[in-house]
């Protein structure tokens, strides 16, 4: 059985314990590797290594850092297929979808290649006679990324390109479910010439996470995962004096107005609900049909849901793969059942789906549930599976109220041909990322990604300008050179300009 290791100080490291967890192939249900789980000592080794590396990397020039980033960009670009296949084998998503996530991660690397421009400070000449003021930003030190299973390449890439470009060193703690991409990334960093110890990977579970949160030499923590863990990470990390951004779960609504084109809308809803088996934090899981939009929409969505080709992620004609674990499959099936029990109408039922030749895979087919109400579990829970609930609303305002009453605020979308309705919607919803006739409005790398309410704890959204701010802190310098003509002398009153 293959063992998946840590990566510390520029090389694979087995670690100090024999604690492991199994890594499965969701399409077959077979175990394919053992994952080494870090001990507190292993985490300490990683942090000390990253801290030592910061001594030099934090002093490296912008030119040196940019060169490594450009080389890393080329290597990731050349390894998209290799990364995508590793992701597909452990996560289950289809290879074309996995390629897409690497591509979106690559865009953050490209953004970080522009770090000399992004780190330009400000300068105010002659704020007082002979006095200038200028500002610049410096790295924090050892930064940590704790990431979820659903994007094993893209989500870490939301973090470390910006953290490393700004001069920090980094420790990634990937999900236990699909850890292999992290080691490919580590190899590519080494090949790109990143000094040993700047990028490290610690594999593990709660033991590793807690050791990172409690380590005095960790300066900042970026987390992406479910809401209860995000809240815990934020509370524990900030209590320990660390800078923390913790992105949580989601329940993303799409509002469909009667004036939306049914063909266009149903195509996009089906892709947004069932792509990656619904295991996306920006997946649409609640379609809010306004007024007369419902019946035609449900007919079109159901027909397209039944046509989705479900199969192993490695097969070229598969559109949707399995879900990540047998536990996730059982939970999703049970939530679908609860919808029926609580009075909703199961229009397309994916619970019984089988894939010939893959009897032990973790399959759940696309599922459409109509007449869902906001009190049902299927509406309240983040299902994180291929399930689209259709809720009905009388008006745009009622739909906006529904969204704003939901504890999550990650992404949302409206389908309409009315600019007025779209504008009311974009201004009225308490949600961080909004799509207008775009169902999965993931911002480009040069904007920042983040939700509101229970979808994000902490002030900073991730990557883009907010990412640069998160991984750096500001200095403002007030300088006077006494021999400058007219520069005044010292005084006991509070300094003012002259
Ligand atoms: P998860 O919260 O179970 O795990 C995320 C990370 O936390 C993993 O590295 C895991 O090892 C660690 N972890 C899990 N339990 C822990 C505990 N008790 N103590 C300390 N650490 C713990 O999430 P997941 O199932 O891997 O991913 C799916 C979730 O992530 C969904 O809720 C999804 O919405 C969310 N997500 C959010 C975004 C976003 O941008 N807001 C993006 C992707 C995924």
From TrEMBL:
Pfam family, one: Aldedh
EC number: 1.2.1.27
Keyword NAD among record annotations: yes
Domain Aldehyde dehydrogenase: 17-477
Keywords: NAD, Oxidoreductase
PROSITE patterns: ALDEHYDE_DEHYDR_CYS
MF (Gene Ontology): oxidoreductase activity
Protein name: methylmalonate-semialdehyde dehydrogenase (CoA acylating)
Protein source organism: Pseudonocardia charpentierae
